[in-house]
Prior knowledge:
This protein is α/β, with parallel strands linked by helices. The protein folds into 2 domains: 2-201 and 375-387, Rossmann fold (3-Layer(aba) Sandwich), CATH 3.40.50; 211-373, 3-Layer(aba) Sandwich (Rossmann fold). Helices cover 42% and strands 18% of the residues. The chain has helices at 18-32, 77-88, 95-103, 109-117, 133-141, 161-167, 178-187, 211-216, 235-249, 281-289, 305-312, 324-333, 342-354, 356-373, 376-387, and strands spanning 2-6, 36-42, 57-61, 64-69, 124-127, 146-148, 172-175, 194-197, 221-228, 253-260, 273-277, 293-296, 317-320, 336-339. Strands 3-4-2-1-5-6-7-8 form an 8-stranded mixed β-sheet, sandwiched between helices. Strands 11-10-9-12-13-14 form a 6-stranded parallel β-sheet, sandwiched between helices. The chain is globular and about 60 Å long. The two termini are 12 Å apart.
Amino acid sequence: MRLAFVCPRLHEPGTVGGAETLIYHLALDAVALGHEVEFLTTCAKSHFTWENELPEGLFVRDGMRVRRFPVNTDRDVDTFLQLQGEICNGRTLSSEAEDAWLRNSVNADALISYLTDHAAAIDRVIAGPYLFGLVAAAARAVPDKMLLVPCLHDEPFARVGRIREMFESVRGFLFNTEPERQLAHRLFSLAPRVDAIVAMGIEPFSVDPGAFAKRTGITGDYVIYSGRREPLKGTPILVDYLDCFRERTGRDVKLVMTGSGPVDVPATLAPHFHDLGFVSEQEKREVMAGAIAFCHPSVNESLSIVILEAWLAGTPALVHAKGEVLRWQCESSRGGLWFANYPEFESMLLYLLDHREVAARLAEQGRAYTVAQYAPDAVRARFGKALAL
């Protein structure tokens, strides 16, 4: 088959994002399955500025053609933020206002023109995540060929009328988890031809849990978080909770982060906070392996890839109980614990610190679950079946 993948950013060094990682890995799976793949993306690198930092044009990588197109420079960011704020506050927008919100989101008209001009030669278009004007435009251009990788969360944006129209118009979906799939069917009237749970394959690996301490000199117990640092990911909660934990319990537990985005750390935690920024995959795995827990405080996830990686690295998860998918991952795997408030966070972290054998067993169970459910061959088989529908 001839497949086109559409994603606002390309997964590559310096680009942090689960959706970008997921969609690029699906493209790699498509290449491995013998399909002809073209990956359409933008010249943006930063998800904060969306500036055209990278050169446009065609290049070949990992057996696929990659085409970069410039992000539209005429977007009115103030209008977009105003309308986005109204959506977040629960206001129902008019159709015209919804159109303005999408029009001033991240778009790339040149990409959509290319997709439209070549639609006849493309069998399927795999695009995501849902919350971008670019993805909505691609769905309008080729709804009958579109398989949406929504990365859906239970959030106000999912209740926008134009978003509902997109979900109800496309050929089908490649969901990450059963809770995400159930949420989509609760929110929208769906009768898709493709209604598959595919997710992302991860190769099992082994890593020395002492390598990070040997390399950096950072010893003792620490909690790790990897990914984007922003309120929507819950990182301010993690910072506040760990600062409070140290003060209340007197336990010397550090906080280590990898990834991108600013972190506002109080003076009392600053000496015990290590921001590693972007690191290599091997370094990330080493940091994970040495941690007492991988803490993911987000409530808006469709699949946590980093939790799967932490389990493979031998580390249990500690997640926010209101994150339906993250809690589902921990319950399904028996690979982690969860908290709904600070007292529960303190109790769970103390339990992991004081019951190392239980923490190790949780990690082992998480690893076994990841190997069984997210082995590349298993994911590839699910993806191949979905493409054939």
